[in-house]
Amino acid sequence: MGVEKESYYRNKYIGMTQSTIKSTLMTDKDCVVYGARAINAQLPQHLQKQTNDWDIYDREARSLAYRIEKTLDNRYGGNYFEVKLAKHKGTFRVISRISGEVVADVTVNTTVVPYRVIGGIKYATLDFHVKRIKVILKDRNLKYRHAKDSEALQRINISRRRRYGAY
Questions:
Q1: How far apart are CA 58 and CA 77, in angstroms?
Q2: What is the largest distance, in Å, between two alpha-carbon atoms of the chain?
Q3: Which of 1, 81, 94, 136 could form a disulfide with 104 if both were Cys (CB 3.0 to 4.6 A apart)?
Q4: What are the domain boundaries of the chain?
């Protein structure tokens, strides 16, 4: 394994990717994190699900994706990341050149997304996710997402019952 690959994995291990993305998002006023990471930010630890990537809405998605990529490259000290177009129109993927892993999907935001600020980052609300999941679960064309989204809805509902004493 080359020196650059070893350096990449060492930096990844110490959490450099996640901390760099977080600090970049704290400086962007328009971005809103959604998906598993946003749900995790609002649930107790025992109801959180492991996730490695960030799903982000931003009016200037392309610009934010390139800013994340450049910031990561600077922090890692080399050309370790790149931006590619995703299959979904308006989404830009920040990908590791070393591992091929997607570290962030940045999508053009075309609607108002309700959010909560936690630790200086805007996260889409649980209500937003519940509405989105219910639409997905009714759509037969999105059947491939049903198991994943049903499980997320279940974790949200458990948290709400616990919070409001309906256990």
A1: 26
A2: 55
A3: 94
A4: 3-124
Q: What pTM does this model have?
A: 0.89
User: What are the structure tokens assigned to 22, written together?
Assistant: 């977080």
In angstroms, the CA 60 to CA 110 distance is: 10
Structure tokens at 59: 């009016």
* pLDDT tens column, 45-99: 999 999 999 999 999 999 999 999 999 999 998 999 999 999 989 999 999 999 9
Through-space distance between the first and last CA atoms of the chain, rounded to whole angstroms: 52
- Please give the structure tokens belonging to residue 31: 């971005």
Q: Write out the chain in H/E/C secondary structure.
A: CCHHHHHHHHHHHCCHHHHHHHHHHHCCCCCEEECHHHHHHHCCHHHCCCCCCEEEEECCHHHHHHHHHHHHHHHHCCCCEEEEECCCCCEEEEEECCCCCEEEEEEECCCCCCEEEECCEEEECHHHHHHHHHHHHHCHHHHHHHHHHHHHHHHHHHHHHHHCCCC
- Evaluated on CA atoms 56, 62, 91, 110, the torsion sign reads positive
Pick the CATH number of 3-124 from 3.30.1490.20, 1.10.357.140, 2.60.40.10, 3.30.460.60: 3.30.460.60
